[in-house]
């Protein structure tokens, strides 16, 4: 349960023994429910310090969750949104999470710079693709650094999380044979009408070729909005989850 911090605290909110600041309290509640209550990122490991690669840290709620189940885990996290990155960095430092490397860059199929689209005063769903335009919105944009996953995937990784708003296929394709270094994977796959760059069949083929079993299911958001009359939720953008585990 999320509670307000005591007067004089600078965090703003407390949950699960952590102190967190946020930009929009509504987002904090949504993230807590999605991550801590639904637990889509839970995985098993016999290692006391598993390596976790977190693509799409946002304000750091996922980092807090990983530290709650593996306090000694090593985490490399990526967050391209400048404002979300600043809040995540503050939350990580405030809660004294050790062995966390936070990178202010977008995971992409190539290194360099890339344009990030976002809605002003919102830190959820910023994207390097056309998802916001497809929803009929007029986003702001900013040039940000882009990095490749292969630069960081240099040893066995126990868990890879990708919630990167449409760059999933390009990021996994760039990794190549190093995908076999990953043991467990959570991918929120984003479909946008007219975007031929994020390809679900090709991505699933990458997983099969790398020796993964996988499960395709709905996101927490789509389960909630499409629980009744689901065809009414069909539109130009959609999301689904791909959960994968490498076969020994």
Report what the structure shows.
The protein is α/β, with parallel strands linked by helices and 248 residues long. It has one domain (3-246): Vaccinia Virus protein VP39 (Rossmann fold, 3-Layer(aba) Sandwich). Helices cover 25% and strands 29% of the residues. The protein is built from seven helices and 13 strands. The protein has helices at residues 25-37, 61-69, 82-94, 131-134, 168-175, 200-209, 220-225, and strands spanning 3-4, 13-15, 18-20, 51-55, 74-78, 100-103, 106-107, 112-118, 140-147, 157-162, 182-192, 212-217, 237-246. The strands form three sheets. Strands 6-5-4-10-11-13-12 form a seven-stranded mixed sheet, sandwiched between helices. A three-stranded antiparallel sheet has the order 1-2-3. The protein has a three-stranded mixed sheet with strand order 7-9-8, with no helix packed on it. A hairpin with a 2-residue loop joins strand 2 and strand 3. Helix 5 packs parallel to helix 6 (200-209). The chain starts with a strand and ends with a strand. The model is unreliable at 6-10 (pLDDT under 50).
């Amino acid at each position: 349960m999320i509670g307000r911090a005591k007067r004089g605290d600078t965090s703003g909110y407390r949950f699960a023994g952590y102190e967190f600041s946020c930009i929009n309290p509504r987002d904090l509640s949504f993230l807590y429910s999605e991550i801590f209550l639904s637990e889509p990122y839970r995985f098993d490991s016999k290692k006391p310090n598993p390596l976790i690669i977190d693509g799409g840290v946002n304000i750091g709620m996922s980092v807090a969750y990983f530290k709650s189940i593996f306090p000694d885990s090593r985490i490399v996290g990526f967050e391209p949104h400048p404002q979300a990155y600043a809040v995540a960095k503050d939350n990580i430092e405030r809660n004294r999470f050790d062995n966390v490397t936070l990178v202010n860059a977008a995971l992409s199929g190539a290194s360099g710079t890339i344009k990030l689209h976002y809605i002003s005063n919102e830190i959820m769903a910023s994207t390097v693709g056309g998802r916001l335009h497809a929803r009929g919105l007029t986003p702001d944009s900013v040039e940000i650094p882009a990095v490749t996953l292969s630069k960081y995937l240099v040893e066995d990784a126990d868990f890879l999380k990708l919630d990167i708003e449409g760059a999933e296929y390009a990021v996994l394709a760039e990794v190549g044979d190093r995908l076999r270094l990953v043991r467990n994977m959570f991918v929120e796959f984003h479909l946008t009408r007219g975007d031929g760059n994020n390809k679900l069949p090709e991505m699933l083929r990458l997983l099969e070729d790398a020796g993964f079993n996988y499960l395709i299911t709905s996101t927490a958001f789509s389960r909630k909005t499409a629980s009744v009359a689901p065809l009414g939720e069909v539109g130009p953008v959609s999301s689904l989850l791909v959960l994968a585990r490498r076969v020994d």
